[in-house]
Amino acid sequence: MARVNQRLTIWEFLSGTECPKETLPKTTKKPGKKPNVEQCRRWQESLENVLHDPKGEAHFLRFLKKEFCSENFEFWKDVKQLKKKKPEGEKLKKDVKIIYDEYIGDSASKQINVNGKLKVAIRDTIDEPYIEMFDDAQKFVIQLMRDGPYRRFIDEDNLQEILKGHG
User: Fold this and answer.
1) Taking the model in full, what pTM does it have?
2) What is the distance between the alpha carbons of residues 133 and 152, in angstroms, rounded to a whole number?
3) CA 93, CA 95: separation in Å to the nearest integer?
4) For residue 32, what pLDDT is reported?
């Protein structure tokens, strides 16, 4: 177990053994203060594992807020909620406009970083919205999160702090 000039993984640090590689079932527990070791291990496997775990979502959002970059996550979550509600007609127009004004528009309060072509495509569909109109922007922000804050979130030191109840 002793290593020279190497960092221990969270699981080695906490249990004194290497982490088993078997796949764990998706958690259904509501977010609490501390996740368990297995949840943190799954979070390190993929951003999707973080986003499909209520505790993962809660801790990732808390981390993003500390880094002043929560708008991408909040946009992703709002679009996810829109798709879950499946509004139609005027309700869809209203909900889409709210998301557009908050994240995409030129004076958006939580403007996400998407390219101009994507912004124009979304703006052009505001008057005749459809439920999947934000899909490309949602994929784009997922990739931004995967390439940036997610990598910092799954850092061993950060996850150890979360496991201790400090993250």
Assistant:
1) 0.75
2) 30
3) 6
4) 56
